[in-house]
Amino acid sequence: xxxxxxxxxxxxxxxxxxxxxxxxxxxxxxxxxxxxxxxxxxxxxxxxxxxxxxxxxxxxxxxxxxxxxxxxxxxxxxxxxxxxxxxxxxxxxxxxxxxxxxxxx
Length: 105
What we know:
- With 105 residues, the protein is mostly helical.
- It has helices at 16-72, 76-92, 97-104.
- Helix 1 runs parallel beside helix 3 and helix 2 (76-92) crosses helix 3 (97-104).
């Protein structure tokens, strides 16, 4: 057999390890996205709950002050003074402003 002066190289690449790595990264990213979506959903629910609670608290206070106005006959500046006092009591005591308003009636 004679020598013809050419070299032959096998240039195939085993990319299975690389592909496995890419698949794992994709899997981790998918799991992270699902976890992030769940956290965002939980935060959204909590924020909505806080907003609902704030509205209910405000409505409860307004209803209490409406009772005070009906029972006492207070109007205008008198009612504003009672409202301010109920808010002050709510801030300074263990009772809420709505509970303070109820105490007036």
